[in-house]
Amino acid sequence: MTDKIALVVGASGIIGSNLAEKLISSGWETYGLARTPNTENSNLKPISADLLDPDSLKLALEGVSPTHVYITTWMRNDTEKENIRVNGTMVRNILNVLSEKGSVEHVALVTGLKHYLGSFEAYAKKGFLPETPLREDHPRLDLENFYYAQEDEVYAAADRDGFTWSIHRPHTVIGKVVGNAMNMGTTLAVYAAICKEKGRPFIWPGSSAQWNGLSDVTDARLLAAHLIWASTTDAARNEAFNVVNGDVFRWSRLWKRLADYFEVESIGYGTQIQPLEKEMANDAATWLEIAEKYQLREKALSRVATAWHTDLDLGRPIEVMTDMSKSRKLGFLVYQDTEDAFYTLFDQLRASKLIP
């Protein structure tokens, strides 16, 4: 891979950090761009830049001419209209700066299942419930969605510059990360650790549809493999793909097994949703006590748990299953057992002193 130079945009995040690690282990020269660069991997070449500042980007990328660009980041805003403006601009800025170099062969963009379910503001609240399993040929919704804006920026740049592209739509990425807005696995681990320390039950926060229905998730390591596969496989270029582990599960079974891992009492769905954001609203001081008691690396609850996003995932009024046939037919056969993915994550968090 000496002729392949990767630029991971968002290399400090749950997706970007796992992707960078996979690229480096596969022999790629790898640069990681972020506002606060990832320095945990000594073989990653960090780049600090603001995606909303073209001059900052141009200066930071001077001397860097990537062949493959992986866009794995986004910025949360108060409204979907602002999400569209900001996140579309970030993609446009990075691709405009790189356009001058003429080196880019492929751009991979990570979005997600809100492509089918609607934005944070909509989230199946406007009377639309998509058919499951979700498939890539489902049309765009007639709703504002920053994922569509990001895609359109990639398409326009590809037409201008002649590179190929791939779009990747994972469902609830499970992997080790600190300070990431979408980290359900870590959030549940932190919640369980608090429950164990304080003798509280591990209460299911979501909907009855999610509790009883079938679901799937995406291991960050599998997503990394999928990104590399699509960007180096001719048949997979200029295509959009769903990306999940390959199995399905019911939270009604998995919830108790996760509770057993942490040796806490589990409580399933009762009569209504019990938001995790409300359950953990007063736990910042509790987490500080736990972090100091067990000498954990991160003392700020907000850095390791994002209850609001976990509530969005688990509060959906429908079961969510994702079809992977398109990738399978083109040769991507990687599989990850979901229960093992959670346990592996929890073991990693303990080994890294992020949970007790």
UniProtKB/TrEMBL annotation:
Residue stretches making up the PRISE-like Rossmann-fold domain: 67-356
SUPFAM superfamilies, per database record: NAD(P)-binding Rossmann-fold domains
Gene3D superfamilies with a match to the protein in the record: NAD(P)-binding Rossmann-like Domain (3.40.50.720)
Ranges that cross the membrane: none
Lineage: Bacteria, Pseudomonadati, Bacteroidota, Sphingobacteriia, Sphingobacteriales
One Pfam short name: PRISE
Annotated PANTHER family: 3-OXO-DELTA(4,5)-STEROID 5-BETA-REDUCTASE
Protein name: Nucleoside-diphosphate-sugar epimerase
